Amino acid sequence: MPAARESLLEAAGVALSARPWPDVRMVDVAAAAGVSRQTLYNEFGGKAGLGRALVRREADRYLAGVDRALSAPAQAAERLAAVAEWTVRAARAQPLVRALLTGSWDARLPAAGGRAPGPGELARAVRDRAAAALTPGEGPQRCELAVRLALSYVIAPGEDPGPGELRRMLSVPTRTAGAR
Q: What is the pTM (predicted TM-score) of this model?
């Protein structure tokens, strides 16, 4: 029932954008998806299962955006900057992504559950995907720097980095470990 599952997750996401998770009602999610409440319960087991699936879907969507940024036909620094920019945009637009990246969950959001990646795991996944996608000369340190820079904008927002600002920061040559 993949179509029903996706419709239910979409309806739950829309409901979550309108009200806190404790106020999201299963009957409303089922109605918005055009399925019976029983179908919703059969698919997810209950509200906690629906919440966990919603969190997992947002993690997967975030990582798909990372992969899109890394697959662009551009120089390595530009692709790293695109990953950083995507991370900041996604976290600002989607509270679940922000919670996944920071580990800061509030009562408005569904619980992550045991299968959702923690902030460190998600950061390592992004770093490792970037290191694998870029030229061998880039190395994981530059990828780690891009992830950490993006996370700093997520954790301590301040001013929005202007167009190209993250790209400019990541293009500055850095000393590698052991260099003098």
A: 0.86
125 pLDDT above the threshold of 60: yes
Task: Determine, yes or no, domain membership for 176.
Answer: no
Count of the separate structural domains present in the chain:
2
Same domain, 59 and 38: no
The whole-number average pLDDT for the span 125-130 is 91
- Residue-range definition of the domain harbouring residue 19: 1-45
SS (H, E, C) the chain: CHHHHHHHHHHHHHHHHHCCHHHCCHHHHHHHHCCCHHHHHHHHCCHHHHHHHHHHHHHHHHHHHHHHHHCCCCCHHHHHHHHHHHHHHHHHHCHHHHHHHHCCCCCCCCCCCCCCCCHHHHHHHHHHHHHHHCCCCCHHHHHHHHHHHHHHHHHCCCCCCCCCHHHHHHHCCCCCCCCC
